Each structure stands twice: as C-alpha cells, then as structure tokens.
Amino acid sequence: MGKGMRAGKRKTKMGGGDMQKQLKQMQAMQREMEQSQAELAEREFTSTAGGGAVEVVINGNKEITKLNIDTDVVDPDDVEMLQDLLIAAVNEGMRQVDAVVEQEMSKITGGLGIPGL
Predict the structure, then answer these.
(1) pTM for this predicted structure
(2) d(Cα 83, Cα 72) in Å, to the nearest integer?
C-alpha cells in the first residue's frame, strides 16, 4: 500500500442520490399511470357507422357497454351489411380508445417510449 492510503477507506461516489431520485420519479410515474388508467376505464367512447345506423359505446377497458341499431338496417336478406356496420363501428371505437390511452400515457411518461404503453 502506498503512503497515506488506508485499506478500506477509499472514497467512491456511487451516485446513490441519483438512483433514489430516479426511483422516486418512477414510483410517481407508476402512481400517475394507475390513476390515469382508472380514469380512462370510466370514460366512454361512441362511434357510429352507416350514417348513425349503428352506434357503439365502448368504455376505456374496451368493453362494449351499449349497442344501438336502427331498425331500418335490419334486413333479413342482407345480414352481411349489418355485420359490416357493426364491425366498422366497433373497430372505430377501439381505435378511439387506443388513441386516447396512448395520448394520456405519453403525457405521463414524457414520450419515453416505454414498451407496452
């Protein structure tokens, strides 16, 4: 050992304060995300197809909560048209939910690009 050095007495800076700060920020972000997800689950998104002949209401959990079908589009000889309208309305509603979820999560994460969000 060199002059003036003592075994086990080296000073090193591990950046522990920075890690603690980052950990607290991540925990705060997680709380915000959980709160935002709960709020989004309560929201309703309405989409229509066929000029309003089919209306679908979907919640933030991507569950259909309401489905309205105008009796004028119920044609036993053209079930495919009704099916197409339902698919279009549901898919548009899902796109609305996805867009809002992405927007809200981006606000929280600051555009960090965290996978799965």
Answers:
(1) 0.68
(2) 14
Cβ atoms of 90 and 56 closer than 8 Å:
yes
pLDDT in tens, 49-92: 999 999 999 999 999 999 999 999 899 999 999 999 999 999 99
What the block records as the tokens of 3 is 């002059």
Residue type at 98? D
To the nearest 10 degrees (0 to 180), the angle between helices 16-42 and 79-109 is 150
* CA dist 94 → 24, 25, 60, 84 (Å): 33, 31, 9, 15
- Render 27-56 in DSSP notation, one character per residue: HHHHHHHHHHHHHHHH-EEEEEETTTTEEE
